[in-house]
Amino acid sequence: MLIDWFTVGAQAVNFLVLIWLLRRFLYRPILKAIDAREKRIADQLADAAKKRGEAEQERDALQLRNQAFDEQRAALLGQATAEAAAERERLLGQARSAGEELSAKQASKLQAERAGLSQALARLVGEEVMAIARKALTDLATANLEERISEVFTRRLKELDAEAKATLGAALRNSAGPALLRSSFELQAGARAAIQTALDHTFPAPVRLQFEIAPGGLCGIELSAGGQKLAWNIADYLGILQGKLNALLDAQSRPPPAAAPRPEPVKVPGAVPAPQAVAV
Amino acid sequence: MNLSSDQQILWQHGFFKLDGTIVTTWALMLLLTLGSWLITRKLVTQGAISRWQAALEIIVTGIDEQIGAVGLSPPQGYLAFLGTLFLFVATASLCTVIPGYLPPTGSLSTTAALALCVFAAVPYFGIRRQGLAAYLKTYVEPTPIMLPFNIISELSRTLALAVRLFGNMMSGAMIIAILLTITPLLFPIVMTALGLLTGMVQAYIFSILAAVYIAAATVVRKPKSTGQAAPMPAA
């Protein structure tokens, strides 16, 4: 008999017991360990995905922050540039106005100096001219300059045209006080008498004179009454000379153009040619 | 010459007896249980795992995949029965390398017991999966005429399971025994190696056939179509 039924039953029971034993000691622990490991790996993957998402969010936030920072920096830079340009313009304008003011001051000062120099020069020239003329008349013609001036004034008085004579005559008549005769030198008695005589012959009404010496005045004689004045002196000649001197000074004070040739110095007709330009 | 360990009677008291098959089976059970306990008592779930744990995981997951490939889902519900079936038969075959060892699967009593277990497991899993009425209905399908043929099929395949395994294992042991008497040196070793291969194949075949029988009993049949196509839902 190949089959022993007791053994069959016993083996079936043994097999069922083995199923329980292996389920208890093999399948359940192994499957549990595998499930735990898979769960841990899944958790790690989920955690990694979560951290990656967080990292991406932080990256995006950082990019936005950097962009805002760049924009703010550009705005600040632009504002600083504009402020610097405005400050530069302000300082340039300030410097320009200061320069112009200084230049105006210097020009005004230069003008004043030139006017003073011109007046001093005119006075000096007048005095020199008078001295030369006086010395020349004395040495060459044995004549007195003051006497000759008185004679010429007397002759000019006589040779007045009708209109001037009428105007001056009316002024002399309407004048409350005596007419004022000013001279730069002391008139001699003869000269005074000659002038009084000429006035009497020229104007019908008697003319009373008050002689006065004008110290520092130009060489000549001046008759003034009632707002009218008749004068003869060398002021006109000196005025012409002063005008030419002023033109010469203007030409010297102007800066020469870069490529233009240097202008020739203005020559005064009749004057002694100066070897050097007048320096102011 | 003892061809089966059933004939090795160690103790007997009336109907009860203790033969070599039972004792060998106990030894195999002890080996499997003790080995599993020694390895699984210190399982790790993170970091490097031991080689023994890796080997056990390979075996368990391999059986699990094979059960899933047959069509049983979820495989964990059938793992204990089918896995134990495979491991027991395979271990019994592997131990043939031990001199003087007679595999319990070379006993028709053991193979009959295993086949009876499969015979009982098929309706157990089938009823648990689809209910008693649905399972019993499978015996009268496609027509009630098929009822005796289905019952004969159940019995015959159980018998075939038992005899197939018994024949293969017993024949291997018998061939080795015969060759030992004729050429006692090298040739039995070659045949033992061949017997190992045969034993592993038989363990696989026995387990897969049991899985296929269970899968056939646990298939939930869908209701037949009425032949009237349902109107297509609008896209």
Domain unit count of chain B: 1
Unreliable stretches of chain B: 225-235
> What is the count of β-strands of chain A?
4
Mean pLDDT of chain A: 83
Architecture overview:
The complex is a heterodimer of chains A (280) and B (235). Among the domains of chain A are: 66-98; 129-238, Dihydrodipicolinate Reductase, domain 2 (2-Layer Sandwich). The termini of chain A are far apart. The longest helix of chain A has 137 residues, at 5-141. With 280 residues, chain A is α+β, with helices and mostly antiparallel strands. Chain A is built from 5 helices and 4 strands. In chain A, helix 1 (5-141) runs antiparallel to helix 5 (235-253) and helix 2 packs parallel to helix 4 (189-202). In chain A, strands 2-1-3-4 form a 4-stranded mixed β-sheet, covered by helices on one side. Chain B has one domain. Helices cover 67% and strands 4% of the residues of chain B. Chain A binds chain B through residues 2-12, 14-19, 21-23, 25-27, 29-34, 36-37, 40, and chain B through 4, 6, 15-17, 19, 21-22, 25-26, 29, 32-33, 36-37, 40, 43-46, 53, 56-57, 60-61, 76, 79-81, 83-85, 87-88, 104, 107-110, 112-114, 116-117.
Concise account of the structure shown:
Helix content of chain A is 70%, strand content 8%. Chain A contains five helices and four strands; from the N terminus they run αααβαβββα. A four-stranded mixed beta sheet of chain A has the order 2-1-3-4, with helices on one face.
Keywords for this entry:
heterodimer; A: 280 residues; Dihydrodipicolinate Reductase, domain 2; four-stranded mixed sheet; 5 helices; 4 strands; 8% strand; rod-shaped; disordered C terminus; B: 235 residues; mainly alpha; two-stranded antiparallel sheet; 7 helices; 2 strands; globular
